């Protein structure tokens, strides 16, 4: 995804957790994160905040791609993430699908799964669409 960046990606939260953007289309996006100690909480499972972060990052990116050419930006407005099963190792897989494309908000559903395709978390994301800052 080609979007301008004020901060080198490796210095952002996405870079720190190792977020890798995969395939994407106009109304969907996929991403992965390799599980390591850097994304785990003290009990050895992936920290819930990582799932929420992945959801917000990929839906903000996908929205930004859709609105940037019109002089608009995208940022998270609401993030509701539910944790269903822990992931201890392997790869975190995320797929977001757009449910609503409005003038000021886009709404997405995100499914987070493990390597076996088992559902680990679900997120409903609302992304605000606003004019780019001057």
TrEMBL record:
SUPFAM superfamilies: Thioesterase/thiol ester dehydrase-isomerase
Gene3D superfamilies: Hotdog Thioesterase
GO molecular function: 1,4-dihydroxy-2-naphthoyl-CoA thioesterase activity
UniProtKB keywords: Hydrolase
GO cellular component, one term: cytosol
Keyword check for Repeat: no
Cited InterPro entries: HotDog_dom_sf, PAAI_dom, Thioestr_dom
Domain Thioesterase: from-to ranges: 43-120
Similarity comment: Belongs to the thioesterase PaaI family.
This protein's name: ComA operon protein 2
Species in which this protein is naturally found: Patulibacter medicamentivorans
């Amino acid at each position: 995804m080609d979007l301008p960046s004020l901060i080198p990606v490796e210095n952002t939260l996405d870079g720190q957790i190792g977020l890798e953007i995969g395939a994407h289309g106009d109304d969907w996006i996929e991403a992965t994160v390799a599980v390591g100690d850097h994304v785990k909480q003290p009990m050895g499972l992936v920290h819930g905040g990582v799932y929420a972060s992945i959801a917000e990052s990929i839906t903000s990116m996908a929205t930004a791609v859709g609105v940037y050419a019109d002089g608009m930006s995208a940022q998270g407005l609401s993030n509701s993430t539910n944790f269903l099963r822990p992931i201890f190792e392997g790869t975190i897989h995320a797929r977001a699908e757009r449910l609503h494309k409005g003038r000021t908000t886009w709404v997405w559903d995100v499914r987070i799964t493990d390597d076996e395709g088992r559902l680990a978390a679900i997120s409903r994301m609302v992304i605000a669409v606003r004019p780019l800052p001057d």
